Amino acid sequence: QARRLEGVDKNIWVEFVKLAATYSTVNLGQGFPDFPPPDFLKEAFTRALSGEKHMLHQYTRAFGHPPLVKILAQLFGKLLGRELDPMTNVMVTVGAYQALFCCFQAFVDEGDEVIIIEPFFDCYEPMVKMAGGTPVFIPLRPKAPKDGKLMSSADWQLDPAELASKFSERTKAIVLNSPNNPLGKVFSREELELIADLCVKHDALCISDEVYEWLVYDGKEHVRIASLRGMWDRTVSIGSAGKTFSVTGWKVGWTVGPNRLLQHLRTMHQNSVYHCATAAQEVVAQGFQREFERYGKPDSYFVQLPKEMQQKRDQLVQSLVAVGMKPIIPEGTYFLVADISEFKSDVPDVPNSDEPYDSRFAKWMVKNKVNASALFHRIYHGVFVPSLLAVLIRASSGGNTTSGQRPHPDPVLV
Ligand code: PMP
Ligand code: GLN
């Protein structure tokens, strides 16, 4: 075994997807919708597979199928307020996951530090370590809830002095994830400016994971850090068609950024994955073309999806309150974190184990409460959230997720 694999062998998804299949519970941990993708996308896929363009079954350009990089450059050019070159400012990846992996491999050397904001999407830490880097953690800290009110993800904030103290000459990059998985926090412009100023001051890169960019609720604005002063040149913005169009199984993602950074991502990509599924890229390009034409209009999927998801969020908040949890209302994403401290006496201790309470709680739910919605935990670095559980906003109707359908029909997929 190569040294780079030491300490990165455990994976929360592998463990819990398997548990979900074994106990036939609904998987509310892994971020994928239980409703179908939009018709326009399914129809485009059928056309792509059966149509005249048989070349869609063959290899395409390594760094992104031309129609896809063109429309991504057009759309993100508009959103970032600058002209983008589809060939050098955009690269398509196998999901946002590969985009993240390429970034850490391409920019992080032995001894480099990468700042990660807690709580965070689990893969950042092992990916930094595999590149030889050292993760440096900075927590979002909760403000005490106001009397009787539920907390919002906006109540979780960075302490500016604490954040500044994490930057040094060893800092290579900071990973930003807004909207944040799992809190659902949508960073405000002021919060992003704080991060941006520190990046500029310390000449650090920003790896900006924006896979939930369209899933923002209550009229909040998703601000792209690459659009802030001094940031374009040092930011790689990462997106996911899986999250954008509710097709997580297609694994189409992308990076957008300056050529000085993307050239290194291309080197990484051409020496590993080389290129991504052509037909899926073609269909995602058509989806974006449609959305580009309808941008901001009521029939845009980017307008409709968050509207529907916001209702589901509100239902889930009510259900969790009804069973005695204290949900933290997310401003965006599929996720919701809830305080489960009320249940401590119900969940048995595991003798001789230092397994944290959230993990024991989630397993107890899966094994003992299969007729209730199964809540799946994810462990985050840092002990400051020991009684918090992240669950997924997903129920497609009426909040009834008790039918026991399997997340994947075939446990081999685990
Ligand atoms: N970043 C975050 C924050 C995510 O939640 C996910 C998926 N859950 C990804 C990246 C990976 O996205 P993809 O499925 O496109 O690889
Ligand atoms: N994409 C999933 C999420 O957070 C899990 C990541 C994965 O599939 N490895 O929800």
UniProtKB/TrEMBL annotation:
Its cofactor is pyridoxal 5'-phosphate. Residues 26-343 form the Aminotransferase class I/classII large domain. It catalyses: L-kynurenine + 2-oxoglutarate = kynurenate + L-glutamate + H2O; 3-phenylpyruvate + L-glutamine = 2-oxoglutaramate + L-phenylalanine; an S-substituted L-cysteine + H2O = a thiol + pyruvate + NH4(+). GO terms for cellular component: cytosol; mitochondrion. GO terms for biological process: kynurenine metabolic process; response to bacterium. It is found in: Cytoplasm, Cytosol. Keywords: Aminotransferase, Cytoplasm, Lyase, Pyridoxal phosphate, Transferase. Pfam families: Aminotran_1_2. Pathway: Amino-acid degradation; L-kynurenine degradation; kynurenate from L-kynurenine: step 1/2. InterPro entries: Aminotransferase_I/II_large (IPR004839), Kynurenine-oxoglutarate_AT (IPR051326), PyrdxlP-dep_Trfase (IPR015424), PyrdxlP-dep_Trfase_major (IPR015421), PyrdxlP-dep_Trfase_small (IPR015422). The keyword Cytoplasm applies. The keyword Lyase applies. It comes from the Eukaryota. Its main location: cytoplasm. One of its GO terms (molecular function) is kynurenine-oxoglutarate transaminase activity. Its EC number is 2.6.1.64, 2.6.1.7, 4.4.1.13. Belongs to the class-I pyridoxal-phosphate-dependent aminotransferase family. Homodimer. This is Kynurenine--oxoglutarate transaminase 1.
